[in-house]
Fold this protein.
Amino acid sequence: MATAVISIDQAINPQVDSTLSESYFQLVWRRFRKSKPAILGGIIVSVLSILAIFAEFFAPYPLSYTNARNAFMPPTRVHFIDADGQVHLRPFVYPVDVTLDLKTFVPEWAEDTDHPFPIHFFVHGWEYKLFWLIPMDVHLFGVDKGANIFLMGTDKLGADLWSKACEAGRISLTMSVFGTTIAVMIGAVVGVFSGYYGGWFDNVTQRFVEFIAAFPQLALWLSLAAIVPRTWDSFQIFIIMSCIFALLTWTTLCREVRGKTLFLRETDFVMAAREMGASDNRIVFLHCFPIPLAISLSS
């Protein structure tokens, strides 16, 4: 009888069987494809990730490059039409000359339209190591000597802000991934144990979570960052800032996991495992932990 019913459902709606056989990640992917904001956000994150991973390839100048004559230079204008009105298929830039106003001491930048410099792609420049292992000197774009290309301008030392932004994106994304991993580990473990055991342990845990969440994050960020010694190197600062980020964000995930664990601990498969003599650790990590964690992360 059951076989006949399934056959009738499949005959009426052929997608029933394929939907039931989809895995959790296939369901998430199908839902993700239907959301335009999610697709746009995924594209933005992918582009930022590519820029961070291959920062040296997209950076025309190294971080150590400085030139006081180029200080506070505005972003370089990329042209396709020259001063005579002719259209060029290859983009080009003009060298920039600076003059100082003797009355206001404000620098004025002017393009030398008589000498265009074409932008070359996949050029050889300063050396770096791809993935910190493979020596390379190929960069996405560059110009010949005699002109500069600063897509985002320069700072007070004359360093290229676009090159610095690519390198800074790597640090920011790495810190986010590292801090989120710590926050997920703390929030998921505390939340699942709080929801599973309940009682006084759940009350004490949730009051502590509310105490942490009550602090304003901006003020706490500033105060914690201010106590970091200036004598620490960049790696130590990276670790402590990632830990600060994790300590401020684990509470939200903890509450979500705890709420879903309260429901799961009363389900039949958890009660059957308890009656069969399974230990609390086995029930928590094998039955209760994966499901609320996956649901909370997907939401």
